[in-house]
């Protein structure tokens, strides 16, 4: 499957310049402290390292030189950057190994000493500790300064152009309303084109070899696996921008385990921006399963819209119950459009990672800062308890004016545990769960040199996941029996239904239930209310509601609602009420040995992964392989192509007639049970007709 691009005019009308890039272009030269002609001085303070950089770059622009980063100093304790040297771009001299080569490059280094040195102090601010003003070279005029490297705004527009899949020549007219007249635009058209091509080369390689390999790989996969799905999004010039693919196994897995999905982008962020993203779920052993992956050229809204819509089509237009992502406004907007019926949640790991980035200066001064934050968002059990804990945390560290924390609080229902107890998540949103899945992926996928290596490594990782599932299936059904402590009917029932992994989790709750005491607090008809508390513990008591008429039990901790396993509090009440076996509605099929029972079908209604020779799936795969072979041989010349088309068309017409006859026979046969209407009537409704295809 491929997707054609819209017209150039349509794309030009729908270009979306990335807001953050535009904000930087508009505001980079006004965020520094004071006018642009203020000279740096030792002791000058800045709120952040980035502000210091912007200030020095603004000063350099007013004077007539370009800057670059020379030195990073890191803390020996935690590896964080605590010092920077920003120098004139002509600082130092070119190393000999770069002085010769196939392409002659101009000499730009002249040993200039001009620089500022900044470091982070205890208050979290950045202070200039050294300033050298003098240059050993001529400075440029105000007319020329905009062409110096650190003052070009070209890269922001190149990225924005790439984000919007825009022709580079469209960028200059689009940018004029934002910046002013063309004489003030700080980049050249050729520079913009070079930058966009550099982005594409970083992803797809220096030539078309990698793309050809991928297309060949997709073609081979479709022959081997007729349910293999892929999509390619080209731009108006026919260049590949985004790729998505999912094999038949991934699509089948989604039909069984589509309740919770994580949109995984960590690999991309951690590996120099290589654009690999994936959709991941969990199987009945709580192991990762892949629901498809993609290569995205950019992080624009249009790319995410294309990806989510393509994935939705590949998964038979089936909505996931919950979709976990990083906290990202662009992703959030795209999900709201494509998956309006899905619960969109934020992964805690991403928020905890941002905690160090946004509030690292507070964390450095307060060793309990992170621990207090985690307790607030994970260990509070009631809404009012979280509210009280949150504002106490904010006031303790004097953070009421922090915009990032304010934004987190506004969307708290998408990531704070206390607000998510009634939504099934299989605990995938926890920081530990997300981190373990990412670590497992990185164990198999190294930083690749090109797309060929990436796809091969990713396929190897997926094969490993499948192997792990097979091994766990074997442990569940064959030789590894978890220990049964009491031999009670409920215990034996759970062991016979759940997978080994899930039984161990259930068994932990079952054994723990015997440490709890219960007290009936209310009874109305068939409904009873219980107060359940752990013996000898000062933990919060739970409220459990039991209905004898339909054997339902609801606990205030809502563990069953978000994990699919009954909690110890509910199990305690079932024991008191002499319920000896788990009600069927409390054994979720997705956690059982038979989670994969039932046939999964693709969009044509074909069984996916039927193994038996002669099965419908086997026949479909065999015919696809034969048809592909015919296509390869027949396409070599016009004569063989015309012959194949003539023969296939005739065969298709004969097949259509034969199929209509079989359907007519089936209808007549079903309406004349046990009666014979003629020699051509099949009395055995299970008999299959073999239709010979003459080629």
Account of the protein in words:
This protein is α+β, with helices and mostly antiparallel strands. Among the domains are: 31-151, no CATH class; 215-347, 2-Layer Sandwich (Nucleotidyltransferase, domain 5), CATH 3.30.420; 349-456, no CATH class; 489-591, no CATH class. The chain has helices at 8-13, 19-27, 49-63, 154-163, 171-179, 189-204, 209-224, 248-256, 266-270, 301-314, 329-338, 348-365, 369-378, 383-396, 403-410, 431-444, 451-479, 489-497, 500-512, 559-563, 568-576, 616-634, 638-671; strands at residues 45-46, 67-74, 81-88, 115-120, 126-132, 229-234, 240-246, 260-264, 276-282, 288-296, 322-325, 343-346, 516-524, 527-534, 542-547, 552-555. The strands form three sheets. Strands 6-7-10-9-8-11-12 form a seven-stranded mixed β-sheet, with helices on both faces. A five-stranded antiparallel β-sheet has the order 1-5-4-3-2, with helices on one face. A hairpin with a 5-residue loop joins strand 6 and strand 7 (240-246). Helix 10 packs parallel to helix 11 (329-338), helix 13 (369-378) runs antiparallel to helix 14 and helix 22 (616-634) packs antiparallel against helix 23. The longest helix is centred in the C-terminal third of the chain and has 34 residues, at 638-671. The chain is flat and about 90 Å long.
């Amino acid at each position: 499957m491929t997707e054609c691009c819209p017209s150039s005019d349509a794309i030009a009308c729908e270009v979306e310049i990335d807001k953050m890039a535009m904000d930087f272009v508009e505001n980079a030269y006004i965020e520094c402290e004071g006018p642009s002609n203020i000279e740096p001085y030792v002791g000058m303070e800045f709120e952040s390292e980035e502000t210091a950089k912007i200030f020095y770059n603004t000063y350099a622009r007013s004077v007539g030189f370009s800057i670059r980063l020379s030195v990073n100093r890191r803390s020996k304790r935690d590896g964080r950057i605590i010092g920077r040297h920003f120098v004139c771009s002509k600082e130092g001299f070119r190393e000999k190994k770069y002085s010769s080569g196939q392409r002659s490059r101009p000499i730009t280094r002249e040993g200039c000493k001009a620089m500022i040195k900044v470091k982070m102090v205890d208050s979290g601010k950045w202070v200039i500790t050294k300033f050298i003003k003098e240059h050993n070279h001529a400075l440029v005029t105000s007319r020329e300064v905009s062409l110096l490297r650190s003052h070009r705004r070209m890269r922001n527009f190149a990225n924005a152009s790439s984000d919007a899949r825009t022709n580079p020549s469209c960028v200059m007219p689009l940018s004029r309303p934002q910046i002013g007249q063309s004489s003030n635009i700080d980049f050249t058209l050729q520079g913009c084109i070079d930058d966009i091509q550099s982005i594409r080369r970083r992803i797809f390689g220096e030539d078309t070899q990698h793309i050809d390999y991928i297309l060949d790989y997709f073609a081979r996969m479709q022959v081997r696996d007729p349910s293999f799905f892929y999509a390619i999004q080209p731009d108006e010039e026919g260049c590949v921008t985004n790729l998505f693919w999912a094999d038949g196994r991934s699509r089948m897995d989604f039909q069984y385990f589509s309740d919770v999905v994580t949109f995984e982008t960590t690999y991309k962020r951690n590996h120099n921006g290589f654009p690999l993203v994936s959709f991941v779920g969990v199987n009945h052993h709580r192991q990762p399963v892949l629901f498809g992956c993609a290569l995205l050229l950019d992080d624009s809204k249009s790319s995410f819209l294309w990806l989510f819509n393509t994935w939705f089509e590949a998964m038979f237009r089936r909505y996931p119950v919950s979709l976990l992502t990083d906290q990202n406004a662009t992703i959030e907007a795209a999900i709201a459009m494509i998956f309006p019926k899905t619960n969109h949640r934020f992964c805690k790991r991403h928020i905890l990672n941002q905690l160090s980035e946004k509030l690292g200066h507070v964390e450095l001064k307060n060793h309990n800062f992170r621990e207090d934050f985690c307790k607030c968002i994970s260990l509070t059990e009631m809404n009012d308890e979280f509210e009280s804990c949150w504002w106490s945390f904010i006031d303790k560290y004097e953070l009421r004016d922090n915009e990032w924390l304010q934004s987190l609080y506004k969307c708290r229902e998408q990531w704070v545990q206390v607000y998510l107890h009634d939504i099934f998540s299989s605990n995938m949103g926890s920081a530990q769960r997300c981190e373990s899945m990412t670590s497992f992926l990185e164990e198999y996928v190294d930083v690749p040199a090109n797309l060929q290596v990436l796809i091969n490594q990713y396929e190897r990782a997926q094969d490993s996941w499948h192997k792990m599932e097979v091994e766990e299936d074997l442990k569940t059904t064959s030789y590894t029996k978890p220990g049964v402590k009491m031999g009670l009917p409920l215990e034996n029932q759970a062991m016979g239904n759940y997978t080994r992994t899930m039984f161990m989790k259930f068994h932990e709750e079952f054994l723990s239930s015997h440490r709890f005491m219960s007290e009936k607090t209310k009874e109305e008809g068939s409904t009873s209310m219980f107060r359940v508390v752990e013996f000898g513990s000062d933990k919060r008591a739970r409220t459990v509601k039991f209905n004898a008429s339909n054997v339902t039990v609801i606990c205030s901790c809502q563990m069953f609602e978000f994990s699919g396993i009954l909690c110890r509090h509910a199990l305690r009440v079932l024991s008191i009420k002499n319920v000896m076996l788990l009600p069927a509605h409390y054994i979720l099929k997705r956690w059982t040995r038979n989670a994969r029972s039932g046939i999964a079908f693709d969009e044509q209604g074909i069984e996916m992964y039927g193994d038996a020779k002669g099965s419908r799936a086997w026949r479909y795969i065999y015919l696809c392989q034969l048809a592909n072979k015919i296509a390869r041989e027949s396409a070599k010349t016009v004569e063989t192509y015309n012959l194949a088309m003539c023969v296939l068309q005739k065969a298709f017409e004969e097949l259509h007639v034969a199929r209509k006859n079989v359907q007519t026979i089936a209808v007549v046969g079903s309406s004349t049970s046990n009666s014979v209407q003629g020699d051509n009537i099949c009395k055995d409704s299970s008999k299959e007709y073999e239709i010979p295809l003459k080629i």
